[in-house]
Amino acid sequence: MNNLVKKWNSSDEDVKNVVHGVILLVMFAFIAAGSSQIIANVSDGIVSATFFPFLVAGLGIGLSLTLVGTNLYHILKRRHKAEARPKTEPPRTCWGMIGASVLFMGIYFSLMNILGFVVSSVLYLFAQIIVLQDEKNKKTMLITALISILVPAALFIPFRYIFGIRLPLGIFTGIWG
Amino acid sequence: MRLFLEGFASLMSFECLFYMVLGTAVGILFGAMPGMTATLAVAVFIPITYAMNVNVSMGLLMSLYIGGISGGLISAVLINIPGTPASVASTFDGMPMARKGEAGKALGVGIFYSFIATVMSTIALIFISPPLARIAFNFGYFEYFAITSCSFVLVAGLAGRDLVKGLISTVFGVFFSIIGMAPLDGVKRFTFGSPHMAAGLSSLPVLIGLFALPELIKYVSESDTGFTKLEVPKFRGLGFTLKEFLAETGNMFRSWLIGLSVGLIPGIGGATSNLLAYAAAKNSSKHPEKFGTGIMSGIVASETSNNASIGGAMVPLLSLGIPGDAVTAILLGALMVKGIQPGPMFFRNNLNTAYAIFAALLISSVMMLIIEMGALRLFVRLLSIPRRILLPIVMVICAVGAYTSTSTIFSMWVLFAFGIIGYMFSVMKLPLPPCIIGFVLGSDAELYLRRGLQMTGGEFAPFLTSSAITICAYSIAALFLAWKIVNGIRKKLLAKLSES
């Protein structure tokens, strides 16, 4: 898997564009398929509710094909001349950190219904800042905990009592609600 | 004049002035922090405006906009990283000036000319917008569809390097606008049986998701500490003499005109105008070799033009209801939440709001001058806050913003989904502004197209030839596409020639 990621990172821009183009093509094909599932009320041909989605999907397919075609042409032309693009060192990407951060956000939004805004935000902030923190000692933990508690409170109180906007309370609805 | 004074009077409450001071300060801070843009500042503050009256909310959003565009100068001069794309050219002479010990002068010049440009472009906005709206009042479906299509093409071509990718991004944006009920007949499309999806995607979670979440993921993926220790520059007056000011008059007017004109064109704005104005100033200078070595003219050109684009970008928004960039797209959403539809009818139905917006722009520019000059030391300190702390906090604020737009947790999931889509866009190098413009204008474009086709009985020819406006709009779009293609081929040929 790691080798695959490394190979992908170091591959040239045209190859990436071809792969991206194919992915986009598949997505637009799905949109076209979805458009055919729409049940239109009016049967007056061109102006029914399916017309615009089909137009969008058609444009998307055409443009994705153009992206794939032009970049394939560049690759084939270079191969024909037997020249390679100078490879540049790809920037280091911490996929683990990205995965963890996306997971934290997913958990954060899932917990919102159960624990409410304040508690889930405290947990999210603490986890996210700690993960991003290079130095993990007692002092940084304490500062992070303090920030994680103060920020949701500083948001919750004005929204509720000044702007009159109720943020989710989850299981605490009975207490604060 | 009476309307203008009424506009000022509507903002003269403690509440409004408090929010405007806060908005300007936060805007400057967001602008100064690399990766945190004026767009994000405006998006994050939208939920607070729900409980406000329309004039106060516009006061807050305008001050965030102006502060956000102006704040980019601080990091451009002090750390050689433009806080926003609109301040890229400010680094060319800003950092060399700072190295010569003239950081205070560079900042003083930048702040002062940002102020002058904002005031002048607001005056231009006041004179251009109402007559343009009167002309647009006669527009029908054909004209609106033509202008919208032209905007799609211009934004797609100008927002990124690759025209095809720009157009793909626009098509995606238009697709996102299709989700929900169709205009005219209310047919459900791509809702997957969800009642939340049937109402369509709320614009705010989509826009915040596309902008904020990818920023956090990008920061995480680069694993950079984002901590910068900065020195507070010494300040004396504005940092330049009257003689220097008079010598820069020509440069200032030229840069202002470039900024204003670029702002009027959908899709470009301050990010391009500062580079164009810098190039124009260099080309017309008697000493072009001095540019980039730390001279005042470079800062004047960059900062005058980027702030002049603010007034320019507001013109199509207010008079045609067409946002030219991401910030104005969010402002359009904010106005629509208040039940106000910018466009030709805006100056008839909401004249007081229009003048309150003009007044807010002028007051905000004065606030920007005072706050940025007076509290520079504080901004420099705040610029040192590590992004590893700031970005998660911004995420929580964004979650609040998404939630308050519909009062459902579903909006938070929309934010999350579009955050991932936004990151995928950055991985595939698809520019975001075309997607945003496509999303904001997509449903209107469909409405104009379907209504037009109903009128013509399915004939497309009247769309092209019904009036001078449609012919003009499609010609601009076609010429622009041709120019982009020819320019691309020319560049490749030149590169081949230079290789051989």
Briefly say what this structure is.
Chain A has helices spanning 2-10, 13-36, 51-80, 95-132, 138-161, 173-176.
Distance between the termini of chain B: 65 Å
Supply the helix-strand structural class of chain A.
Answer: mainly alpha
Q: Helical content of chain B, roughly?
A: over 70%
What would the average pLDDT of chain B be, to the nearest integer?
84
What general outline of chain B do the C-alpha atoms trace? globular
Task: Describe the oligomeric state of these chains in a short phrase.
Answer: heterodimer
Output the helix-strand order of chain B: HHHHHHHHEEHHHHHHHHHHHHHHH
The helix/strand order of chain A is HHHHHH
What value does the Rg of chain A take, in angstroms? Answer: 25 Å
Class from helix and strand fractions of chain B: mainly alpha
Span between termini of chain A: 49 Å
Number of domains of chain A: 2
Mean of all residue-level pLDDT scores of chain A: 82
Task: Give keywords.
heterodimer; A: 177 residues; mainly alpha; 73% helix; 0% strand; flat; B: 500 residues; two-stranded antiparallel ribbon; 23 helices; 2 strands
Walk me through the structure.
- The complex is a heterodimer of chains A (177) and B (500).
- Chain A is mainly α.
- Chain A has six helices and no strands.
- Chain A folds into two domains: 70 residues; 82 residues, no CATH class.
- The longest helix of chain A has 38 residues.
- With 500 residues, chain B is mainly α.
- Chain B has one domain.
- In chain B, 76% of the residues lie in helices and 1% in strands.
- Chain B contains 23 helices and two strands.
- A two-stranded antiparallel sheet of chain B has the order 1-2.
- In chain B, strand 1 and strand 2 form a beta hairpin.
- In chain B, helix 3 crosses helix 19, helix 6 packs parallel to helix 14 and helix 10 crosses helix 20.
- Chain B starts with a helix and ends with a helix.
- At the A-B interface, helix 2, helix 3, helix 4 and helix 5 of A face helix 8, strand 2, helix 10, helix 19 and helix 20 of B.
